[in-house]
Amino acid sequence: MATIMVLNGPNLNLLGQREPAQYGYETLADVESMCREAAQALGHEVDFRQSNHEGVLIDAIHEAGRGVKEGSVLGVVFNPGAYTHTSIALHDAIKGAEVPVIEVHISNVHARESFRHHSYISPCAAGIVVGMGVHGYVMGIQGLVHKFGR
């Protein structure tokens, strides 16, 4: 049974209270429970993390890459938050670690401000789930298992 890392970027710790019209009322703890249930139903465990710090996210991606090579990690479901639009370093970490990543966004970033239309993560992601609310995490887990499951 391989672990799926679910990685959350900046401000996602504020889910449920930050702009609920945009992001909904579910908390990050609710998302974690959903992810654990979805992964367990598919025979996997979840390593669920959130950080507001880019370097911590990079370190987690490197760790996941090592786990993929060892066979203990299947890949990463990643909501990079605002770092989506700014972080070449996260892009480079994903490519360098050679880790399968499903990029997830709760809102439809393409229907929002123009600066949110570009992603540095998408070109190195194995798949993308956008605008499906927090259910997008479940879809990301399902997609990762479907594409890379073992």
Structural commentary:
The protein is an alpha/beta fold. It has one domain: Rossmann fold (3-Layer(aba) Sandwich). It is 39% helix and 19% strand. The chain has a five-stranded parallel β-sheet, sandwiched between helices. Helix 2 packs parallel to helix 5 and helix 3 (54-70) packs parallel to helix 4. The longest helix has 17 residues, at 54-70. The termini are close together. InterPro entries: DHquinase_II, DHquinase_II_CS, DHquinase_II_sf. Homododecamer. Substrate binds at residues 79, 85, 92, 106-107, 116. The active site is at 23 (proton acceptor), 105 (proton donor).
Compose a concise summary of this entry.
This protein is α/β, with parallel strands linked by helices and 150 residues long.
Element layout with pairings:
Elements: E1 3-8, H1 20-23, H2 28-41, E2 45-50, H3 54-70, E3 73-79, H4 88-97, E4 101-105, E5 127-130, H5 135-148
Parallel strand pairs: 1-2, 1-3, 3-4, 4-5
Helix pairs in contact: 2-5, 3-4
Protein name: 3-dehydroquinate dehydratase
GO molecular function, one term: 3-dehydroquinate dehydratase activity
Catalytic activity: 3-dehydroquinate = 3-dehydroshikimate + H2O
- The computed structural class is alpha/beta
**C-alpha end-to-end distance:** 8 Å
Tally of strands = 5
CATH architecture assignment name: 3-Layer(aba) Sandwich
Give the radius of gyration: 14 Å
CATH topology annotation: Rossmann fold
Task: Give the overall form.
Answer: globular
Biggest sheet descriptor: 5 strands, parallel
CATH-defined superfamily:
Dehydroquinase, class II
Number of domains: 1
Low-confidence stretches: none
| Strand order across the largest sheet | 2-1-3-4-5
Strand content: 15-25%
Classify the helix fraction into a percent range: 25-40%
Provide the residue-averaged pLDDT.
Answer: 93
